[in-house]
Amino acid sequence: MPGHRLMLDCLAAPDAATLPLHCVTPEGLEALRARLPAGAAGFLDASGFAAKAQEVRLLPGGGGITGAVLGLGEGPATPWSFGGLANALPAGSAWHLAEEALVEEAVLGWCLGAYRYARFKAASRAPARLRAPPGTERSQHAAEAAWRVRDLINAPANLMGPAELAQATQNLATVYGARCTIIAGAALQEGFPALAAVGQASPRAPRVAVLEWGVPDAPLVALCGKGVCFDSGGLDLKPASSMLRMKKDMGGAAIVLGIAEMVMRAGLPVRLLVLVGAVENAVAGNAFRPMDVLRTRAGLTVEVGNTDAEGRLVLADLLTYAAEQDPALLIDCATLTGAARAALGPDLPALFTPDEALAAALLGAGERTADPLWRLPLHGGYDSWLDSTIADLNNVSSRPMAGAIIGGLFLRRFIPPTTPWAHLDVYAWNDSARPGRPEGGEAQAMRAVAGAVETLFAGIPGPGR
To answer: Which residues form the Cytosol aminopeptidase domain (predicted)?
Structure first.
């Protein structure tokens, strides 16, 4: 990816001098001791190494370090098993995997754990580096995409407004020879009226970035991302504590860009339509108000029950535009509701879809890629909770329950019944640092969706990219 690739500075050059890293479960510890030199095996015994998850020992010898051992613990190894190594091993040291198993998980986890957002503050230390074995290119590509998603989410809102988010879409399109159109001004008011209303109070004008890629006769995969670059809540103003992470409210848009990168880089046999709704929900004299009635692209009218439920208004117009193109698959990603986090916590994006085959593909891909999702119901019994006396529907429920489901039901009003569609309500953030998951922005559901796209459209001739 000339001109766009982030340097994964946690990877060593193929010809670099490296030390061996042994990865072992408690069950395999005795066999590892038998393979190691007697001094190293004795050191492991004397130090009490038990191969617990994330347990690391440096092996001494010859006046220095001769290798290291990582404990994998009892459960199945995942990328997170290796996520702490770039920081746990000596700064700037270089390593290779002594065993051939789990190389893809090791490379992905190592790289994800090495990420840091260093735009304004230099990293305190250089990461340890891994020599990635041949055949792990997909893991490296996934890590690079995740780094870029994290960078977009971590950028402060004063430097990541609607224009900058649209430009990030343009930059991605340029790298892959895709087409990118930016819709703003009068065209936005006419074609995306609800989205335009959300962003009209900000001095940073709203816009929609449209990325298109692939050959004309391939099945169309449409991705829609909520790109609210900062969410004050509008006139239904959030309390200060709730605004502290609202730079991440464009996380859905960042994630669909990451999915698009993975799809294009893998040359999957699909056409892509990526829609990024880039807006800022601000407060000013011309802000949209509670009880306003907005027109949507679909022709439905929406009464504004709460200006802090703006993301679904942004997505309503994007989903309508995408559905007009008759996609074979339509997926939206959004930091839509706090209710999803209350139900599932920060690590499990909520999956909503009426399509059983699509649900199975997404859930299965989430398991395979260590990027899990959890399905919640689109319970039709709550549809009437969106009723309005003066418009086709309200943007919030009349009852203070089932908020994540209500968000999904609102979006479903803009989806044709025959369109395969899934809605992902993501958190897009790590509240605290864990192995492989530094505090800050996170590319949740990115690998799961890209994996599902690959599975669903396997066997179709590729675009020759």
So the answer is: 306-313
Q: Give SS3 for 393.
A: strand
Alpha carbons within 13 A on the beta-carbon side of 417 = 0
Secondary element (H or E) of residue 281: strand 271-281
Alpha carbon distance 3, 182 (integer Å): 21
* CA-closest candidate to residue 84, choices 39, 50, 45, 53: 53
- C-alpha to C-alpha distance for 135 and 137, rounded to whole angstroms: 6
Locate the domains of the chain by residue range: 19-131, 142-456
Q: Name the CATH superfamily, with its identifier, for domain 142-456.
A: Zn peptidases (3.40.630.10)
Handedness of CA 138, 144, 148, 154 (dihedral sign): positive
pLDDT at 22: 97
Q: What are phi and psi for residue 389, nearest 5 degrees?
A: -80, -15
pLDDT at 4: 45
Q: Environment class of residue 84 by beta-carbon count within 10 Å: exposed (0-12), middle (13-18) or buried (19+)?
A: buried
Would the pLDDT of 464 be above 60? no
In whole angstroms, how far apart are CA 354 and each of 291, 311, 451? 30, 21, 20
What pLDDT, in 10s, does the model give residues 222-234? 999 999 999 999 9
DSSP category for residue 437: B
**pLDDT value of position 62:** 81
> Do 290 and 235 touch, CB atoms closer than 8 A?
yes
Phi, psi of 95 (to 5 degrees): -140, 160
Q: Model-level pTM?
A: 0.96
Q: Are strands 64-71 and 56-61 parallel, antiparallel or unpaired?
A: antiparallel
- β-strand partners of 20: 96
Span 19-131: which CATH code? 3.40.220.10
Q: Which amino acid is at 445?
A: A
d(CA 331, CA 251): 15
Cα angle 56-60-62, degrees, rounded to a multiple of 5: 155
- Which is it for the CA torsion 423, 428, 430, 436, positive or negative? positive
Active site residues: 238, 312
